[in-house]
Amino acid sequence: MKSAAFLAALAAILPAYVAGQAQTWAQCGGIGFTGPTTCVAGSVCTKQNDYYSQCIPGSATTPTSAPTSAPTSQPSQPSSTSSAPSGPSSTPTPSANNPWTGYQIYLSPYYANEVAAAAKAITDPTLAAKAASVANIPNFTWLDSVSKIADLKTYLADASALGKSSGQKQLLQIVVYDLPDRDCAAKASNGEFSIADNGLANYQNYIDQIVAAVKQFPDVRVVAVIEPDSLANLVTNLNVQKCANAKSTYLTAVNYALKQLSSVGVYQYMDAGHAGWLGWPANLTPAAQLFAQVYSDAGKSPFIKGLATNVANYNALSAASPDPITQGDPNYDEIHYINALAPALQSAGFPATFIVDQGRSGQQNHRQQWGDWCNIKGAGFGTRPTTNTGSSLIDSIVWVKPGGESDGTSNSSSPRFDSTCSLSDATQPAPEAGTWFQAYFETLVSKANPPL
Ligand SMILES: *[C@@H]1O[C@H](CO)[C@@H](O)[C@H](O)[C@H]1NC(C)=O
Ligand SMILES: CC(=O)N[C@H]1CO[C@H](CO)[C@@H](O)[C@@H]1O
Predict the structure, then answer these.
(1) Catalytic site residue 425?
(2) Segment Disordered: which positions (predicted)?
(3) Looking at the CA of 413, which ligand is closest?
C-alpha cells in the first residue's frame, strides 16, 4: 500500500517525465507499472484496484462507474463494535420458495453507464445497439475488496428508493469475494488480505460492514454467491501449499460469512466450481460431504439455499452433445453435474438448490482443455437470467460474471500474471482481472447466443 501510494504520488508530481499518453482502455497505473499515467483525450485514468488503473472513456466530470472510496490501509477498528447502524432488530423470516419470486432484480445504473460507454466506442451501429442492450441484463456486483462496499451501500439505498417509488420489490445480487489468501490455486485474482497479515480479522470486518449495510434496508432482498473457487479448492487442490495453508482459515471465514449474512436474511449460494471440476465422479462425494459439513457448521440456516455453479466459467447448462474436452466425465455439462451432486448433498443432510452462471456460455466447444478459464476466445453471452430453468433443482439461471471484465492479465511481468491467461485459447493482450476488456466485450456481444 505504501509503495503504491508513493508511486502514485511520484507519478502525480512528475507528469512531465512520463512520455506519451495511454490509449482508451489501456493501463495507466498500478503497482509496478512504468508506462504513461495520463490518457488520450476523451478518456480518464481511473483507478480500478492497486494493480491497475485504466483509461475509461468519458471526462473527469462524468464518472462511468460507481463512486468507490479510495482503497486505504486496513481499518483498525471493527465497525461492528464501533459504528454499526442500529437497524431493525426483528429476525428475518426466510421464504420457503425461490428467492427471486415476486422480486425484480435491481439493475445498477452505474453498470448501464459502463456499458453505454463501451457501446459508444463501437463503430458498427448494429453491434453498438446490441452492446447497449446488455445494460438491461442483470449481473452480480462483486464485492472483491472492502472499498466496493461503498457501491453496495449506494445500490441498497437506490434499490430501496426504487422499490418504494415503483411498488415493485427489489432484489440485489452480490458476490462475496475477499477471503484472505484468495484464489489459492491460481494467481490472477489474488486479493487484498493475507492470512499472515491479520487476514481473518480483516475478513470478518469486511463481512461486518456488508451485514451493517444490508441491515439498514430490510425491504431490499439480497442474494449472494459465497466465495468463488474457495471450497472447491479445498476439495481438489490441497496439494497446492497455499491452499493447504489456507484450509482452516477458509473454513472459519466462510462459516463467519454464512452465519452473519443469514442473520440479516441474505440468501446464499456457496460456489461449487463447475462440471469439469467437482463434477468428476471421484470429486462428487468429497464435495457433497464438505458442503454439507459447512452448511451444518453454519447452523443449517434456511437462508443458505444451496450452491452456485459455473461462476465465471463457460460450460453449457445443457450441452447439445459433449464437448470432446469433457471426455471421461459423464457429467459433461452443468445439468448433469447438478443432477449428480444434488442427491449426494441430500443424503449428507443438505437439501440444496442451485443457481447456474450462463453469462458467457453462449458458444461451446471452443476451449483446448476443460481447465482453461481465462478470457476464452470465441465465447459469447449466453442464456438470459431466468427463473424458468427447466429444473426444480435450479432456482435461477444467472449472469454472475459481468461479461466484459477481464479474468486476468496476459502481461507476464505483472505480479498477478497466471500463465493460463497466455494460453493459445486465451484472448490477448488482456488487462488485469476485474477490469474492463473492451475487445472481449465486443466478442461476447457479437457471439451472443441467443443473439442480442
Ligand atoms: C506489463 O506489466 C508491467 C508491470 O506492471 C508494466 O510495467 C508494463 O508496462 C506492462 N506491459 C504492457 C504491454 O502493458
Ligand atoms: C448489478 C450489476 O449490474 N452489476 C454489475 C454488472 O457488471 C458491471 C461491469 O461489467 C458492473 O459494473 C456492475 O456493477
Answers:
(1) no
(2) 63-96, 404-428
(3) 1
Q: Which of 151, 158, 208, 229 is catalytic?
A: 229
Whether ligand 1 lies within 6 angstroms of the CB of 51 is answered as no
Q: Which helix (H) or strand (E) holds 57?
A: strand 52-57
Ligand nearest to the CA of 414: 1
What is the pLDDT at residue 86? 38
In the block, cell 508530481 appears at 13
Indicate the pLDDT class of residue 184, thresholds 50, 70 and 90. Answer: very high
Q: How far is the CA of 40 from the centre of ligand 1 (A)?
A: 18
DSSP string, 33-44: --S--SB-TTEE
Write the DSSP symbol of residue 299: T
DSSP for 375-414 reads SBTT----SPPBS--S-TTEEEEE--S-TTB-SS---TTS
**Single-letter residue type at 216:** Q
Cα 264 to chain centroid, rounded: 21
Is 33 touching ligand 1 by the criterion CB < 6 Å?
Answer: yes
Please report, in angstroms and rounded to a whole number, the separation of the first and last CA atoms in the chain.
42
At position 436, the amino acid (one-letter code) is W
Task: Check if 183 is active-site.
Answer: yes
Conformation bin of residue 4: beta by default, left when phi > 0, alpha when psi is -120 to 50: alpha
Q: Is the dihedral of CA 372, 374, 380, 385 positive or negative?
A: positive
Q: Is 25 annotated as a binding residue?
A: no
Most ligand 2 atoms within 8 A of CB, residue of 49, 113, 141, 171 to mutate? 141
- Grid cell listed for 71: 482503497
User: How confident is the model over 315-370, as pLDDT tens digits?
Assistant: 999 999 999 999 999 999 999 999 999 999 999 999 999 999 999 999 999 999 99
Judge whether 436 is annotated as a binding position.
Answer: no
Domain segments of the chain as ranges: 26-57, 104-447
**Cα 411 to averaged position of ligand 1 atoms, centre (Å):** 6
Q: Which fold has domain 104-447?
A: TIM Barrel (3.20.20)
Cell 481438489, located at residue: 236
Q: Is 111 in the pocket of ligand 2 (CB under 6 A)?
A: yes
pLDDT tens by residue, 117-171 = 889 899 999 999 999 999 889 999 999 999 999 999 999 999 999 999 999 999 9
Q: Is 144 annotated as a binding residue?
A: yes
